[in-house]
Structures are given as structure tokens and as C-alpha cells.
Specification:
2 copies of one chain form a homodimer. Chain A is of the alpha+beta class. In chain A, 46% of the residues lie in helices and 17% in strands. Chain A contains 13 helices and 10 strands. Chain A has helices spanning 3-20, 26-32, 39-51, 68-78, 86-97, 102-117, 170-184, 189-192, 208-223, 236-240, 249-257, 259-268, 322-341; strands spanning 55-56, 65-66, 120-124, 133-141, 145-152, 157-163, 230-233, 276-280, 292-299, 310-317. In chain A, the strands form 3 sheets. A 5-stranded antiparallel sheet of chain A has the order 7-3-10-9-8, sandwiched between helices. In chain A, strands 4-5-6 form a 3-stranded antiparallel sheet. A two-stranded antiparallel sheet of chain A has the order 1-2. In chain A, strand 5 (145-152) and strand 6 (157-163) form a beta hairpin. In chain A, helix 2 (26-32) crosses helix 3 (39-51), helix 5 (86-97) packs parallel to helix 13 (322-341) and helix 6 (102-117) runs antiparallel to helix 13 (322-341). The longest helix of chain A is centred in the C-terminal third of the chain and has 20 residues, at 322-341. Chain A is elongated and about 90 Å long. The A-B interface holds A 100-102, 134-135, 137, 139, 141, 147, 149, 151, 155, 157, 159-161, 233-236, 238-240, 249-251, 253-254, 257 and B 100-101, 134-135, 137, 139, 141, 147, 149, 151, 155, 157, 159-161, 233-236, 238-240, 249-251, 253-254, 257.
DNA sequence: ATTGGCACTCGGTCAGAACGAGTGCCAGGA
DNA sequence: TCCTGGCACTCGTTCTGACCGAGTGCCAAT
């Protein structure tokens, strides 16, 4: 019983099941693939695959269906690359090309990916912790409030209002603005060190609370993971795809609506930022997502480099077209990176 | 045959149908409501209501179900106010109270409303066209690019990058920044008139393109309706609610994902900004939403006044609890307005 | 190691029967 | 004029039992 053929059988089962959505039996398998052996032989192989926990039969007399483990093996060792068609590539390019600002780029990317994969697409906004500060702006609002606007390298803007104990002095604010920007502009949080906290020494003691307040807000914003945002598209594909999970969409939608869940997942998948990584079923470690798989990759890093700025990905049913999804995710991430770099 | 009782019957039908999700027959009706007449009499009334197009029977021998028109009459003339419970009010208040910035307020509001109504909640970001400008900031980026940051009254921030023909002169940019802010700060788009376009006259001809470019971006941003954003929550409730439309969720999700559709609808419903307005079924004028109703109201205006800044609302199945939804939407809008004003 | 044959399991489908909820209509009564 | 009880009728729902077919596991033969 050749090991190679057994894997061929597994591949065939995955492919057929993905294509037909129905448990695949031994007869159908030999008919659709040129395996060169009889159904009976396939049955023996299938029994072995089932013992190995790679496939199961839903009912006693039904065909076989891949398990999480089966899909995992398929993705890791059996999937063959499936390059996008030329028209698809061109579509991606032109669609992303004429985006206006960062919001627009993200919006277009996520819609595009949803359409390419016919699944739910997920795009994480460029992470603040990994982007450099471009500019900090201080805008007095009334006597006791100060609006702090933080602009990052990728054009993302965050704002906070802080309350100050003493009435604001315009000159002090202006000086603080200059000092802040010379100290921080162009640097990442990690590179800032004590540069910001030392600023307070340059001001009169009476201004200490003000300076420390502003510095705290800036550092806080850059550090705060909870401020990271995720955008979705294509949730309608969850149901339109046909009775995939039909009666269990609800938990999936709930999970997807929880930014926290998505951010954790994306964070966990970031081990190798340049490569595409896949989480299958229970590997997501989330109850609502046991019947879904995630395919994600980093984007925004220098070409081929290892320092991605955020992640983009696709969520679909366990039995999704892994090679196709991987190709689409990778392609969109690549163009997205190019746009952001340009 | 008293007209009053016929309306009582309609109200009873709507209430029972909403509660049970099943067509309601004459017998069940007299049992559950003290109408003081026999089923046969009710049947006559029902026949009349059906002739009037207010109810229909799904099958020849089934109970009656309200039509769009029936719900409309119910909402307009039969619904009785259903005040929120004290705990509910307190929950709203405390939940919204400790929100940090605008994003947080909007996010909390939409989740809260989704949870209160067990439906999909929709919150429109404060409309740029109706808010006043607080501050405009210009940040040179390299030699030829200028980042324009626009901060509005409600703390919303928009940014655009523009390309300029000639290398930037820092002094000119600084001067432009000051002039822009004195001319525009605190005003709405409608109040600006030609104040901005006249600015170009104050600068050297060589700076004309720069000034006009910046002015154009500012005006464009304030005017651009497409920049208005809508946030959703509770899409999982669409399916969880039970087989409401079960096999037709897809078009609903698709419609909800299209910001354009939502913005059009919210816009159309803004006739009377202070009141709660309701769109039932086909009244939404959108194919994917024929089986859904919208309940929305404005928020952000002065208490009781007529100048709302944006809308908040709830989307649910045709047979939803209109009184309850209306109460929830109104309550959240009120607290939301208070937070924004404070 | 592969193959053909065979008995067995079991989900899906179909037809028919029984059921019951609900209606419309009509004739009689307040 | 309006209400009521009665009655025949419709029709969707549910249940049953039979049948079909896909698919399996095992075994003896090659």
C-alpha cells in the first residue's frame, strides 16, 4: 500500500469535497481522477486515512469528508499553487490604483479581497505600534481642553482630548508642539525611549502637568493595542455560499463583529510576517469559529522583507478553496504594500 | 360593524403575530384578547381588513398576517408607547458615560442599540456638512506633498494629501494655516461662502495653485457626502432571531454592507429630524430590504430642537416590536445627544 | 498488493392517510 | 342592523412504510 497514493487519495478527496460539497465515495473518486486502481483499493486507502484521523464519514454509509487534520496536511504538503489569472491581476491593480486616502485604500482592499475569494475579507489598519510618528498637533479648545492630534507615517490620524488643570497659555502650547515634533517625528514608539518623558525638564514646573499629560496621551496612543482597527467586507458571502454552515452562521457573525477576537487571531498568526499563514477550524481557538478557516498574511513591509505593518486575510468555511484563497490574499497584500510604499 | 373594533382586531393581529411569529386565526384571537365577541364576528372583521389590504393569509386555510400597509397603520395610529424600564435607562446611561473619544462613543452607541433591540443597529457619523470646522492643520510631507488635516466640531478628523507644483515654502504654509483658521474656524460649510476662495487674493500669484489646492480640499471634504460613514452592529441578530427570513438574509447583509444604500435611506428619513421615523418593507425602496423595516431618528441636535447632526437607527424584520424599537432608538439618541453636547 | 463480489447499513425520497387549524357562508336571533 | 352558532370545505403539516441507491467492510482469488 503505497504511501504516495494514499496522499493522492487525500488530495483528491479534499478537492472533490471542496468542489461538490458532498461526501466523496470510492467510486466517484476513481471516475474523476486517474488513479489507476479500482474502487476497492481506494477503500482500503480510505480506511487507512480514516485510522490516521484525516478523514471521516458523516454517516455509516456515506462518502468521506476531510477532518481539520486532513485539511491541515493538505495545506501543508499537498496544495499546489494556483496563480491568479492575468485579468484578475489587472483588476486588482486598477482597482487599488485610484484610491484617495488611507481609509479608501483599506476599504477598497477589503472589498476586493471579499470579491476575489467569495468569502469574508478582513483588513487590519496599519498598527500604530509599528508605524512611525509623522506629526503631533496640539489644538487648544476653550480654556481648559487641549485636542491632541497624532498623525502617523501611513497617514493614519488619531485624536484625543485632554483636560488641563490650569488655563492654557498659547505660547507654552506652541513651544510644546515644536519640542514634541522635533523629539518624536519620524520615530517609532520603540525608538522613543525617554526622549518624550525628558521633555518636561525643559518647561517651567508649573507647566509640568500639561506636558506630562500630553506626553502620556501620545505614548498611550502609540502603545494602545485596543485602538487597532479591523475592517470587514463580504459577510453576505457567508450565507450566499450555500448551506455551508447554514444554521450556524450566527456564532461566526458574532465572532467577526468582535474586534478583540479578530485582533487576537491576527496577532497570533503573525509569526512569519512575510508568509501566508493558515488557521483551520479548531486551530482558531474560538468556539464560534470551529467551522471556519483563516488565511492571512502581513502587508506594508518592504518587498520580501519581514517587517509587516498589519495583516490582511480571508475567512471562509472549513471546506474552502485553500490554494485559490492563499493566492488571492497574497496578491492583494502585495499590491496593497506597493500602494502604501509609493 | 364598528370601525373601532376592526382596528382593535388589527392591533391584536399585529401584536400576536409579532409575539408568536405564526399566522393568527380568529379563535386564538378571541382567546388571547378580551374582544367581547365571537370568532365568527372576528372573521367578518378580518375579511374586511383583508379587503382593505391590511392583512393577508399565506395559505387558504391559515391565519392572517399583517401586510406592509397593515404595519404602517399600526405604527401610525395604533401603537402605544412602551417606555423603557428603569434598569434599561440606567444601563444606557452608564454604558455611554465612560466613552473616551468620538469613535468610542459611536461604537458604544451602536452596540448598545443592537443589544437593546436584538436587531441590527446603525449609527451615522456626525455629518461633515452640518458640523462646524474647528481647526485646519497643514503638515508638509517632503518637498512636494502637503497633508491637510481637518478637525470638526464633534472631534471628527479627516485627512488628505495633496501634491503641489512648486517646492513648499515653510513660511507660506504657516501663513496659510493661520489665514485658513481665522477665516474658517467655528463656521459651517454653509456659512463659509466665498471666504475661503477669496484667500488666494492675499497671497503672491506664484502661491495661487497651492492656496487654491488647499481650499479646494477643505471645501471638498466638507461637502463630500460620500465621506459620511455608517457603523453597524448586531448583524448576528439577523439570523439568531430565528428563521425570520432564514433563507433570505443574504440580500439584507449585502444591502447593509453598502454604505451608499444606508446613507440614502438615512438621508430620506431625515424629514423631521427630531422625531422617530419608520420605513416599512417596500417603503425602503430597496430590493434587498423588502422584508425589513427601519426605525431611525436624528441625534446631536440641541434638546428638542430641529437641527440634528446625524442619524441613528435599528433594522429588523417586518414583524418587529415597533413600539419597543422606537422607544430604544429614541432613548439611545437622546443620551447620545447629551454626551456629545456635554 | 490489488481486485471483484457480496451482504449490509442507512439516509433520502415518495406516496398516501390522518389530522387539525382555519376559513366562508348561511340561517336564525337580539 | 349586527352578532352568533353551525357546517362544509380547503389545504398545509405530520406521520408512516416502502423503496432506492450510494457507499462501506470484508473475503476469497489473483
Amino acid at each position: 500500500m503505497s504511501e504516495d497514493r494514499r496522499l493522492d487519495v487525500l488530495r483528491a478527496i479534499v478537492e472533490d469535497y471542496v468542489a461538490t460539497r458532498e461526501p466523496v465515495g470510492s467510486r466517484a473518486l476513481v471516475e474523476r481522477h486517474s488513479l489507476g486502481v479500482s474502487p476497492a483499493t481506494i477503500r482500503n486507502d480510505m480506511a487507512a486515512l480514516e485510522d490516521a484521523g484525516l478523514i471521516v464519514q458523516p454517516h455509516t454509509s456515506a462518502g468521506r469528508v476531510p477532518t481539520d487534520k486532513g485539511y491541515r496536511l493538505f495545506v501543508d504538503r499537498l496544495a499546489t499553487v494556483k496563480p491568479l489569472s492575468a485579468p484578475e491581476r489587472r483588476a486588482i491593480e486598477t482597482f487599488l490604483e485610484d484610491a484617495a486616502d488611507l481609509d479608501d485604500v483599506v476599504d477598497r482592499s477589503v472589498r476586493l479581497l471579499a470579491q476575489l475569494t467569495h468569502q469574508v475579507a478582513v483588513v487590519q489598519y496599519p498598527s500604530l505600534r509599528r508605524t512611525a510618528l509623522r506629526h503631533v498637533e496640539l489644538v487648544p479648545v476653550g480654556d481648559r481642553h487641549l485636542l491632541v492630534v497624532i498623525i502617523t507615517d501611513h497617514g493614519r490620524v488619531e485624536q484625543r482630548t485632554i483636560e488641563v488643570p490650569d488655563p492654557l497659555d498659547v505660547a507654552t502650547v506652541a513651544r510644546l508642539r515644536v519640542r514634541l515634533n522635533t523629539a518624536a517625528a519620524g520615530r517609532r514608539l520603540a525608538e522613543l525611549g525617554t526622549a518624550l518623558s525628558d521633555l518636561a525638564d525643559d518647561f517651567a514646573p508649573v507647566d509640568g502637568p500639561l506636558v506630562r499629560g500630553v506626553v502620556a496621551v501620545v505614548e498611550d496612543t502609540l502603545a494602545q493595542e485596543s485602538e487597532e482597527r479591523v475592517v470587514l467586507a463580504g459577510t453576505a458571502n457567508l450565507v450566499r455560499g450555500g448551506g455551508d454552515f447554514a444554521h450556524t452562521i450566527s456564532p461566526v457573525l458574532e465572532a467577526l463583529e468582535e474586534q478583540v477576537v479578530l485582533l487576537r487571531l491576527l496577532g497570533e498568526m503573525a509569526e512569519d510576517e512575510a508568509a501566508v499563514s493558515v488557521r483551520i477550524g479548531r486551530e482558531t481557538q474560538h468556539e464560534g469559529l470551529v467551522e471556519t478557516s483563516f488565511v492571512t498574511t502581513g502587508y506594508g513591509g518592504p518587498d520580501g522583507g519581514g517587517t509587516a505593518v498589519a495583516r490582511i486575510g480571508s475567512v471562509g468555511p472549513l471546506r474552502m478553496d485553500y490554494p485559490g484563497t492563499i493566492a488571492s490574499v497574497r496578491a492583494v497584500a502585495r499590491y496593497l504594500s506597493r500602494i502604501l510604499a509609493g
